[in-house]
Amino acid sequence: MFGDASAAGDAPVSELLARMRDLYRRAEAAGETHGAVEQKVSERRGKVDRLQRELAGVRVRLAEARDEAGRLARQHYRGSSGVLPPSLRLLFGRDEREVRTLLEHGRAVERVLGDRAAAAARLSAEERRLDRLATRARGALDRQLTLAADSGRRRDAAGRRLAEVERALASLGDGELAALRRAEAARRGR
Q1: Disulfide check for 144: which of 41, 88, 96, 102 has CB 3.0–4.6 Å away?
Q2: Any residues with CB less than 8 A from the CB of 15 and at least 6 apart, and which?
Q3: 23 with 158: CB under 8 angstroms?
Q4: Distances from the Cα of 16 to the Cα of 3, 161, 185, angstroms
């Protein structure tokens, strides 16, 4: 704002004080803005972390559901007795009751398999939904981090300008300070 210290030393004290007041206000506003942005970044990080944990849990449940459906299907098609597959046992069933039992068992296994497949489909849909949410949340976090970096740079720049004014005021000589005191006294005397 001042360019160099000699230019600041040539400026009237009242102008330096006005600049200092303005810079102080800007630095304070930049600090407050930076604090608000940092708070939003922290909240976004929490949301991203929560979504990623939730997504990981859904992925685990999906893998478990798929594994269980596969295990049930293998068990059904191998046959629980280990001798003949269910379709052949059905053909060679000894009586109507055994055939009915085999059919009921087959329907029950198919229902369970269908339920597992439906659960896996629901979990897959949930996984995709959470993945989209996590992607959007990561994008929002990236934007917030960029804003936080910009805000920090503005705050630092305002602080540097304020330090320049402070250095200029500190470099004032005794004569300049006496003139400032006389000007203040004259203004109060009005």
Answers
A1: 41
A2: none
A3: yes
A4: 13, 12, 18
pLDDT band at residue 7 under the 50/70/90 scheme: very low
The H or E element spanning position 8 is: helix 5-10
Q: pLDDT tens digits for 38-91?
A: 888 888 888 888 888 888 888 888 888 778 777 777 776 665 555 556 665 666
Q: Which two tokens stand for residue 185?
A: 């006294």
CA distances from 92 to 40, 84, 95, 101, 102 (A): 70, 10, 9, 13, 11
**Whole-number Å distance between alpha carbons of 145 and 138:** 10
> In this structure, how many other beta carbons lie within 10 angstroms of the beta carbon of residue 8?
20
Give me the pLDDT at residue 1, please.
42
Query: 90 near 102, Cβ under 8 Å?
Result: yes
Burial class (CB in 10 A: 0-12, 13-18, 19+), 165: buried
Is 161 within 8 Å of 23 (Cβ atoms)? yes
The tokens of 144 are what?
A: 């917030």
pLDDT category at 93 given cuts 50, 70, 90 is: low
Count the Cβ atoms, other than its own, within 10 Å of residue 131. Answer: 15
What percentage of residues in the chain have a pLDDT greater than 90? 0
* Residue 3 per-residue DSSP state: S
